[in-house]
Write the structure tokens for this entry.
Amino acid sequence: MRIGFGYDVHRLAPGRPLVLGGVTIPYERGLDGHSDADVVLHALADAVYGALGEGDIGVHFPPDAAWTKDLPSREIVRAAARRAAARGYRVANCDVTVVAEAPKLGPHVPAMRRAIAEALGTLTEAVSVKATTNEGLGAIGRGEGIAAFAVVLLVAADGRPPGGDAAAPAGKA
């Protein structure tokens, strides 16, 4: 098994849709970025790639590449999950915390959990999404942006140690 951690933050900007966890949320501003700027899915993809020891999403989806412009972040997470599967892993569970002063995210959490589970190819019960505020502190507290933290647990897809990781002699991994 392998554990990965991810973090992302984007500014809020007028004229953009607010997409979090693969769900479009009604709000006067959206997140500014090269793709759809979904901080939840970006943090989650970073966690998967981190668990695999393969860097962050910028390595796999360069932010200055034309082909990634306006890319739905669900595609980034799907690619990360496919990469994990190719390496012999599946997502056992993930836990995401979104930090935003507004809008209220509680009503959207069930839809975000379903969208994340679909993108990862796992059960909704394996996905946790929580929302909190920054208590008015810093840029996020002033409502200038939204951040997300994610942790993911990858386990062997078929119950055997994938890629020889567990079978490596001590000191040779």
User: Anything to note?
Assistant: Residues 165-173 have pLDDT under 50 and may be disordered. The radius of gyration is 16 Å. The chain is about 30% helix and 30% strand. The first helix runs from residue 39 to 52.
